[in-house]
Amino acid sequence: MLSRRNFLTAAVGVAAATGLAACAKEDGSSTAAAAGSGSGSGSKAITLGFSQVGSESGWRTANSDSVKSAAKEAGYTLKFSDAQQKQENQISAIRNYIVQKVDVIAFSPVVVTGWDAVLKEAKAAKIPVVLTDRSVETSDDSLYVTLVGSDFTDEGRRAAKILEKVLEKAGHKGAVKIAQLEGTTGAAPAIERAKGFKEVMDADHADDWKIVVSQTGDFTRAGGKQVMAAFLQSNPDINVLFAHNDDMAIGAIQSIEAAGKKPGKDILIVSIDGVKDGFVAMSEGKINAIVECNPLLGPQLMEVVKKVKDGETVERWIKTKESDFMQDQAKDALPTRKY
Question: Which has the closest alpha carbon to 293: 152, 163, 182, 177?
């Protein structure tokens, strides 16, 4: 059964076209104008060190904006750094936060592995660490407190299930030859979205679906464009594209059109995120369906940071709250459309 989020996406796609077409630059510190408004009357304001993976996509920009605005609203002092998609930059930023003796460290890790050493340093300094958006693999689970983020494996499953609807609506018959644009190699969303998609494909479509080519586009439009061009050279009979995010799908559309093919028709496209430009492409019939990944983690993160600072027990994994993010993006992209 499609979730509310997928149903919204599919409904927008149906209306948009025939068929279902329609995650180190230091930004410094910022403090809320009303200092301490989120940290309790008379208490010391919380200082949060946050290391962002980068600014590779529209989703990531929305995520950074959410963290910054939520910290300001809560009255926290925020030390924000952009790792520019380099793990060494994030590790350096985290070490700087340790030296600065911030109250809590949060970060969205570039990749899954390679964090034990710096996390042990944070633990030795008695600074709790909260993961946002992406998970890590560690030798000791006590090295971080919790993860605030989405279930990427389930997003992959939902992408496969919604592709079933896309194929049905398009009246597709015969073999399904899938090109997969992967996210950053070693990153949790790339690993888990691919895993979830393959689970459904192997269980329900072993005889008719096949991923004929798969490569990282690094979650960027430029990467999606470049890799898709290579895909079309080596596999001109691709009829489905599964992109791990909207930005890569949008980049891929440029290469599909340059090859004289129609995105959303000659090559059916399913992606993940739900950013404004993705809805624009879907309204034009170039993306067939999008699975939501909500980037607005800021308010939840600030709630968790407060609890952690106060020594309260928190869940090991805190799922992203469902929101109207996708619908808001759709309304911004399509101001005359009613939902």
Answer: 152
Instruction: Report the alpha-carbon distance of residue 213 to residue 181 in Å, rounded.
Output: 9
For residues 146 and 57, give the distance between their C-alpha atoms in angstroms, rounded to a whole number: 25
Q: What are phi and psi of 329, to 5 degrees?
A: -65, -40
Query: Closest by alpha carbon to 106, among 136, 140, 129?
Result: 129
Domains of the chain: 47-148+296-320 (3.40.50.2300), 152-293 (3.40.50.2300)
Helix/strand/coil percentages in the chain, nearest 5 = 45, 20, 35
Q: By the 8 A CB rule, do 314 and 146 touch? A: yes
Burial class (CB in 10 A: 0-12, 13-18, 19+), 183: buried
- H or E stretch at 87: helix 87-100
Assess contact for 334 and 328: CB atoms under 8 A: no
Identify the helix (H) or strand (E) that includes residue 51. strand 47-52
Q: pLDDT tens across 62-109, in order?
A: 999 999 999 999 999 999 999 999 999 999 999 999 999 999 999 999
Residue with structure tokens 């006590």? 142
Q: Tokens 């034009």 map to which residue?
A: 284
CB contact at 8 A, 75 and 42: no
DSSP classification of residue 267: B
For residues 150 and 295, what is the distance between their CA atoms, to the nearest angstrom?
9
- Grouping H, G, I as helix, E, B as strand and the rest as coil, residue 79 is strand
Written as six digits, the tokens of 176 are: 């399904």
* Nearest alpha-carbon partner for 293 in 159, 129, 144, 197: 159
230-245 pLDDT tens trace:
999 999 999 999 999 9
Show the tokens assigned to 132.
Answer: 């946002």
User: Residue 199: exposed, middle, or buried by beta-carbon count in 10 A (0-12, 13-18, 19+)?
Assistant: middle
User: In 101-187, which ranges are continuous DSSP H helix?
Assistant: 116-124, 152-170
